Amino acid sequence: MLLFKFALPDAENMADMTRLVALIPYYIDLIGRYKLSSQARSKTESARSKAAQEAYKEQQNARQEALQKRKADRKKMLEEAEAKLIHYQLLQAIAEFKKGKVEYRADKTGIVHIPFGKADFSEEDLLVNLIAAVVCAAFLYLIWGIK
Question: Nearest Cα to 48, choosing from 36, 30, 34, 60?
């Protein structure tokens, strides 16, 4: 197996490379005249196959790394998009509650559950919220017939 490796010179000295490149066919012809023994031939074939396998493995590893990088980039992009969406939805929900949105739900028995405060609210705030919730429930009953 012949490997030709050249250190490329500057663009100004590229003419020096033409002589080296011209020597490659000469050495190939020179080596091609020699007849290899069966042992040497099998040794070179095994070296060629080993080099081919290593090149294939390197290529596969490069593909796997590129695939992993694309997956990681896609996952990162999705996480960033999800974080922005959650932030937007949170801001939107806060704005809706500030405008007076009241959430309610009805269970299987038909009882409507309306949250009207938290445990750390003062009694006056809870009372104001309760009155607003009852008025809202009465409004829903009157307008839409929700029980």
Answer: 36
